[in-house]
Specification:
Order of helices and strands: HHHEEHHHHEEHE
Shape: globular
Helix content: 40-55%
Number of helices: 8
Low-confidence stretches: none
Distance between the termini: 65 Å
Strand content: 15-25%
Radius of gyration: 20 Å
Largest sheet: 3 strands, antiparallel
Mean pLDDT: 86
Structural class: alpha+beta
């Protein structure tokens, strides 16, 4: 027997996740009224939905700026989406502003692991290998991979813990926004300026 789903429960789940009314009702029904389980169901569906959209072209979007600390740090960013309609959407604009603020605060080197300069990765690999010296051979590779993953989490925008919610990465927030707005999105490029930095 399935639990009765109230409008209040649907409203709470919608406020928590930003998903549509019918999606919230279906998820609550599937979860027998359990709000946390329903939120998890919606997250999984959102990730699957975002994955399906990843191949679609992103030829619209927004260029935005963020200035912080009384003009001491500034970020200029381009985030692309599929349509002009979404580019003008307040949720999309808020996402772009949040990512700008994140870049100002955490100063990533690149958007993704693939964009980190090879010489920086190789230098990190050498440091990790020297720290793993004397360890059992089978452990050395795992130690190096672990240290590289930690390095990427510090310098790659998509791998960094999101400045407004450390339990999520920037990639998680991007995926949730894609699922919520129903279009593919891509953080195309950014530049961060800080007084006194080269």
């Amino acid at each position: 027997m399935s639990a009765q789903i109230s409008a209040k429960q649907v409203g709470e789940l919608r406020a928590q996740t930003g998903a549509g009314l019918m999606d919230c009702k279906k998820a609550l029904t599937e979860a027998n009224g359990d709000l946390e389980a329903a939120a998890t169901i919606l997250r999984k569906k959102g990730v699957a939905s975002a994955d399906k959209k990843s191949g679609r072209a992103t030829s619209e979007g927004l260029v935005d700026s963020y200035i912080h600390l009384g003009g001491k740090v500034g970020v200029l960013i381009e985030v692309n989406c599929e349509t002009d309609f979404v580019a003008k959407n307040d949720d999309f604009k808020a996402f772009v502003k949040d990512i700008s603020l994140h870049i100002a605060a955490l100063n990533p080197v690149a958007i993704s692991r693939e964009e980190v300069p090879a010489e920086l990765v190789e230098k990190e690999r050498e440091v990790a290998a020297s720290q793993a010296e004397g360890k059992p051979a089978q452990a050395v590779q795992k130690i190096i991979e672990g240290k590289l993953n930690k390095y990427f989490a510090g310098v790659c925008l998509l791998d960094q813990p999101f400045v407004k919610d450390g339990d999520k990465t920037v990639q998680d927030v991007l995926t949730e926004t894609i699922a919520k707005l129903g279009e593919n999105m891509k953080i195309k490029r950014f530049v961060r300026f800080a007084i006194g930095e080269e």
